[in-house]
Amino acid sequence: MTTTMPEVRESESAPSSGKPRRDKRGGGVMSSTGLYIATGIAGFLFLIPFYLIIRNALSTEAEITGENWQFFPTDIQWGNISELFTDETVPYAQSLWNSAIVATLHTVGVLLVCSLAGYGLARIPYKHANKVFYAVLGTLMVPTAVTFVPSFVLVSSLGWVDTYRGLIIPGLFSGFTCFLFRQYFLGFPKELEEAARVDGLGYWGAYWRIVVPNSLNFFAAMATITFINGWNSFLWPLVIGQDPGSWTVQVALSNYMTNQTVVFHLIFMATAFSILPLVFVFLFLQRWLVQGIAQTGIKG
Q: Can you tell me which residues the record assigns to a coiled coil (predicted)?
């Protein structure tokens, strides 16, 4: 004779803890709302300088310096654009062209030199590799003011003043960029390079045909940072670019502020045009910028 046990429902068998369940949906909505509010406030504060630049660039001197503040000028001064590019004292169009050339070539050179140095330190077996790496890190502790005068004397002796060579070549190596490339290459899969060596490729072939095509995100991130730094460079172009024809955009901006006068509407108009390339570069490469920085690893 067989006896059958009654079925026990799962709801009946589970002991009751006596604590009511918490509905997490309400907390999630509140946290999302707070996040949106914080993001909106941060975005608003971020856009304030851009609003001031555009507002003052299209205003007269009286509206910029006057006591009665207006949200936007009543009479938009579109003529400030033509005044900016026709000003004979400051060749602003030429300075934009110079900055574009200097920043672009500077970016390409830094990526090539520092990526090769970082790859060599990360992959090529050499008994003094760590010593060289520590020497590279040591350059980060040397203040720029210490090497500024010797660099200028060297560039001047080579006859590179007022030339693109003098503006670009002295800054082609960056210890920090080399460090980031080394850290990234340490985390790069070695299996891909070993397969390349089986096919007969050396270190250069593996770097150029395997590593670089699979590291475009990181290269794009480094390119963005390097281009922005090259575009915003001021002190070195100020010293090397002594002729107005070799001024960069940052040097041209400084010439609207003299000991006698400050031309506010031209300063803001020139600033608006000077940040446009940076905005386009950042918008185009922003996703690679975040991914590339996250891939550095910052590990030994």
A: none
- Which DSSP symbol is given to 69? -
First and final CA of the chain: distance in angstroms?
Answer: 72
What long-range pairs does 10-17 form, CB within 8 A, spacing at least 24? none
Measured distance CA(152)–CA(44) in Å, rounded: 43
What does the pLDDT look like over 254-294, one tens digit per residue? 988 876 778 888 999 999 999 998 888 888 877 776 666 66
Burial class (CB in 10 A: 0-12, 13-18, 19+), 22: exposed
Q: Between 216-232 and 175-186, two packed helices, what is the crossing angle to 10 degrees?
A: 170
Structure tokens at 221: 């991130």
**Using CA atoms, how far apart are residues 99 and 234, in angstroms rounded to an integer?**
11
Contact predicate 70/63, CB 8 Å:
yes
